[in-house]
Write a structure and sequence with these properties.
This protein is α/β, with parallel strands linked by helices. It folds into two domains: 282 residues, NAD(P)-binding Rossmann-like Domain (Rossmann fold), CATH 3.40.50; 200 residues, Orthogonal Bundle (N-(1-d-carboxylethyl)-l-norvaline Dehydrogenase, domain 2). 47% of the residues lie in helices and 11% in strands. The chain contains 21 helices and 14 strands. The termini are far apart. GO terms for molecular function: mannitol 2-dehydrogenase activity. Keywords: Oxidoreductase. Pfam families: Mannitol_dh (PF01232), Mannitol_dh_C (PF08125). This is Mannitol 2-dehydrogenase.
Length: 490
Amino acid sequence: MITLCNAALANLPDDVARPVYDRRALRPGIVHIGLGNFHRAHQAWYLHRLMQQGLAQDWAIIGAGIRPNDEEMRQTLAAQDYLTTLVELDPKGRSVEVVGSMIGYVPVEKGNGPLIVQMAEPGIRIVSMTVTEGGYFVDPVTSGFDASHADIIHDAAHPATPRTAFGAIIAALRLRRERGVGGFSCQSCDNLQGNGAILRQTVLSLARLSDPVLAAWIDANCSFPNSMVDCIVPATGAKERALVQEIGIEDAAPVTHENFRQWVIEDDFCAGRPDWDKVGATFCDDVHGYEVQKIRILNAGHQILANAAEVLGIQTVAESMQHDLIHAMFRKVALEEIAPHVSPVPGMTPAQYVDLVDRRFANPAIVDTIRRVAFDGSSRHPGFVLPTVRDALRSGAPVDGLALVEAAWARMCQGTREDGSRIESNDPHWAQLKSRAIDAQKTPMVWLGMSQIYGNLSDESRFSTPFCRWLTIINKDGIEAAICEYLEGR
């Protein structure tokens, strides 16, 4: 067994690809905040592939986090010289490579002092992030900035010792302005439509609360490119660590992923960028179409599957695709109720994308848990599912299947499966969701009364009526009975 570290790279098994570049010569150019599995399998991989060509040697990644438990990840990765074993899983076979584009990780401290200092370094030209869809302090109904959150109130009052990543970015940019250093590009890699525009809104809105002059400087000197990211990356557990050990590597934080990646980026970088297009990324003036296709079909597709599967005790996405009723529901909702509101992108129609997602979800080699994709429904349903509901209501298109998806979520939030087993808390607002879901057993409209999620959809009878009907059927006869009625057009 070879313990992963720089000194061991030459001794890795012959079929394991490893860095051919000199990692000691790399210089940092990117700080990435929220360094989870997805980043290491996606953005870090693209950069690693450039480095393998002898390029982008001054764009190495420094990881960062703002939560106390991020310090555990920092220590784990530091012990293996920030290397990651990536295992691509495909029914046809697997491939393994060690990625070395990350060279450091900022110590996680209260007030985020080390992070601020690192981002203020002149060599840092991009600050990127994956902080989850719900991490941008956006009102889910108005899409405006939510200035009422306790962490935002704190950062506005104490800009030198912020709690949030956005407060730390602002503090670092304040130092750069004072030192005569230019701005940097702020790059969101989260599943948000217009993620760069949303990041701009959050940073500028927070900055205006404490320093409007600095906010204007940031607006003039920084850029916020939109992007669409796509790769299915399961969480790492004992099974994934054991898989890497079978290969002959001791890696405390390996990452498995599917054999598909896509990265579409708006070419708006104020301080330069790596040539990611040389390794498969797409630079495009209008990312919107790609964003809509991916968020409305793939990300919403996860929600179509996840809640029904959780209620039935199905553990993985691939297993849910083997369930005839859930699979059929996914295809019917995606093709008939979502795809008509999605425009084609170069080389891909919405129907073709549904077929692509179908194959990807069904990949049995990817052990992507239902619990992972069902997490944070209070952010994911407003972001992924409900925009299509609103489009359909405006155009007079059907919403019965989308109403069923929301009813399945309400049923899941009751906190028990149909076999009586307990569903553990799986949302930052779980207590409120569970209370509403239990009350909705008798009065389904109670669920739609959560205006912070549904806005005025409770007033739309074309949506609320089928929702109430589906939830009543689910509570009385079970989730499979409701899906059967939907598939039969009843």
